[in-house]
Amino acid sequence: MTTHAPPFNDIAQLTDALRTSGYALLRPADVAALAGCSLAELDDLIPSWDHLAPDNYLKDGGSYRRRRHSCFIQDGATLTQTAHRAHWQPIEYNALHGGMHRLFEPVEPGTVALPAWGKLLRALGDACSRVRPAQPWYVEAHQFRIDTLEGIGRPTPEGAHRDGVDFVAVLLVGRSHIKGGETRIFDAAGPDGKRFTMLEPWTLILLDDATVIHESTPIQPAGENGHRDTLVLTWRTGGFQGDTE
After folding, report:
1. Theoretical Cys-Cys bridge with 169: which of 111, 132, 233, 241, CB 3.0 to 4.6 Å?
2. Cross-referenced Pfam families, in alphabetical order (predicted)?
3. Percent of the chain whose predicted confidence (pLDDT) is above 70
4. 118: part of which helix (H) or strand (E)?
5. Total-model pTM
6. What are the backbone dihedrals phi and psi of residue 152, each rounded to the nearest 5 degrees, phi first?
């Protein structure tokens, strides 16, 4: 595995990078440009991370994760929020929490109503459609805060994994008083990998879930109230996971 600074892609390379490498990494300014909004509009979303609910399903016994979760369907330019539903993954993709119907608190209506929310989700769904034109997309949105109040917080307690969807986006929303939280991406069919740390809010990694495996390393405190906030979005064809299982 090679170690280097974040291997950013130019926004014009997004589609080709997803097709050839299985992932694309964009700078915050390019994420805003892709979404057709300003960084200030994206920043309007940030305060909602201070109102996440505890994740009561952690099987490692920890209490370091807070989150909210909501689902949407994107069909063309139309993005529609679904009735609130549980998050479900098969054991094959999440050995730690798979097979559980986990009903988290929903993303707050005021967050979904902000202009940047819909612009961001639709733009990233359109980017996925340029690689695999298979709308409608069944979209799940997860707001995460991992904290270090217990000493160590684990962004991916299940380890390196795939999510069982078509595409996954991880957007850094903020880091405060922590060390660690390195992003690691592995070729699902071989030993090649990359490792880097996302530092700036609204840095984006967009992944083809069929071709790469990903994880984020644990975080440790580097001051009081250390935490790492992310927005994780997934796109899947054919329905939400758990619809037929």
Report:
1. 233
2. 2OG-Fe_Oxy_2
3. 89
4. helix 115-131
5. 0.92
6. -135, 135
Residue 139's φ and ψ, nearest 5 degrees, are -110, 130
What's the rounded Cα separation, in Å, for the pair 45 and 233? 15
| Distance separating alpha carbons of residues 110 and 27, to the nearest angstrom | 26
Question: Residue 245: pLDDT above 70?
Answer: no
For residue 210, give the amino acid letter. A
pLDDT tens digits for 113-154? 999 999 999 999 999 999 998 789 999 999 999 999 988 888
User: What is the rounded end-to-end Cα distance, in angstroms, of the chain?
Assistant: 36
Amino acid type, 112: V
What confidence score (pLDDT) does residue 236 get? 94
User: b/e for 118-129, b at 16 or more Cβ within 10 A?
Assistant: bbbbbbbbebbb
Q: Please give the helix or strand (H or E) that residue 112 lies within, else none.
A: helix 109-112
Q: Which two tokens stand for residue 57?
A: 């399903």
